[in-house]
Task: inverse folding
């Protein structure tokens, strides 16, 4: 599922100091400013800037990491050819200018819609027209309710929203919405264990995150790109040691782990700062950062399972304290899992190249 994004309009704020202090302390990562504000704006490390451009000459001293925002299509075309990401702003008040918006969407990374009427029908029609292009659709909104509706139009929804408000409570509500949208929903399935095998010694990876995980959370770990089992966080009883709620004892170093944006990573390649998905037993997923990995030689256990003629397997440390979630949502001790048991898993299309899903004939055994 494509992650929704939020832009905050910091142009012409009446309470600029108060609002920008709030924005910088919340989760907003994309800020729209005027060209004249470039020197006085204090850019935070996390912040991506969109800059409103009204004159082509203003492009001469801008770095390529900003997004050029303009109502002028000529400026958008020039910026795109120079290598900038672009955001073309179009006011939609009738059928004709709605048609002109999608017809002239070449060189447009983001189409920003300023709707004069309350109806979302133009949004629906533009989503349909642009669904097979690389252009994001962004709607101008003033409150969280409008944003929620924009994200739900035609089920697919807008890719992002441009927020225009100075209401403190509304900005706080948007921050909470951003937190919710940072979570992804995965369709977990019940798989039946078809084989359990002690495979000897090998390198096992513990993934230590910078987040506290719950007892119902873990990570999707698998040996093949078509899916994996939900391996629990270290949040359940351990007889001889304290819990490590930030950790997933993930498995063999060759394993895949699910990452944001429908990506995977090998356990061997993740490092400090890598972003991974923490998934709960209901399929709710959130992004977490890696604080470190811990690689040691341990005895390993292969657990193979089948779902609708699709076979997956996960290799974990061969020990009682490793937990894998069962179909009932309970954390099962790995060493107690046997043929016929039902576990929770995520099934995906087979075939990846450097973590990216690819339509290619790949045979993984």
Result:
């Amino acid at each position: 599922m494509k992650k929704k994004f939020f832009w905050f309009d910091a142009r012409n704020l009446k309470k600029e100091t108060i609002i920008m202090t709030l924005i910088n302390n919340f989760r907003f990562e994309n800020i729209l400013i005027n060209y004249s504000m470039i020197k006085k704006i204090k850019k935070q490390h996390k912040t991506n800037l969109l800059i409103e451009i009204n004159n082509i000459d203003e492009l001469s001293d801008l770095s390529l990491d900003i997004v050029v925002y303009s109502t002028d299509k000529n400026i958008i075309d020039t910026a795109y050819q120079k290598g900038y990401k672009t955001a073309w702003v179009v006011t939609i008040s009738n059928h004709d200018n709605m048609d002109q918006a999608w017809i002239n969407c070449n060189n447009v990374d983001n189409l920003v819609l300023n709707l004069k009427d309350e109806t979302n029908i133009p949004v629906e029609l533009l989503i349909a027209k642009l669904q097979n292009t690389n252009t994001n659709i962004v709607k101008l909104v003033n409150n969280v309710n409008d944003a929620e509706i924009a994200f739900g139009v035609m089920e697919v929804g807008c890719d992002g929203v441009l927020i225009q408000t100075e209401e403190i409570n509304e900005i706080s509500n948007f921050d909470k919405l951003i937190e919710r949208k940072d979570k992804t929903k995965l369709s977990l399935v019940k798989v039946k264990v078809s084989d359990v095998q002690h495979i000897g010694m090998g390198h096992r990876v513990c993934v230590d995150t910078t987040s506290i995980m719950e007892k119902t959370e873990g990570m999707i770990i698998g040996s093949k790109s078509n899916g994996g089992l939900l391996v629990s966080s270290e949040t359940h009883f351990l007889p001889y040691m304290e819990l490590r709620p930030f950790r997933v004892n993930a498995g063999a170093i060759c394993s895949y782990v699910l990452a944001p944006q429908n990506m995977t990573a090998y356990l061997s390649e993740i490092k400090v700062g890598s972003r991974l998905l923490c998934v709960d037993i209901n399929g709710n997923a959130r992004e977490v950062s890696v604080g470190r990995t811990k690689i040691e030689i341990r005895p390993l256990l292969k657990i193979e399972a089948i779902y609708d003629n699709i076979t997956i397997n996960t290799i974990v440390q061969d020990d009682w304290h490793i937990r894998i979630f069962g179909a009932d949502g309970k954390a099962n001790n790995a060493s107690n899992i046997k043929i016929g048991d039902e576990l929770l898993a995520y099934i995906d299309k087979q075939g990846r190249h450097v973590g990216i899903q690819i339509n290619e004939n790949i045979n993984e055994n």
About this structure: The two ends are 27 Å apart (CA to CA). Residues 5-182 form a domain with the TIM Barrel fold (CATH 3.20.20.70). The chain has a mean pLDDT of 91.
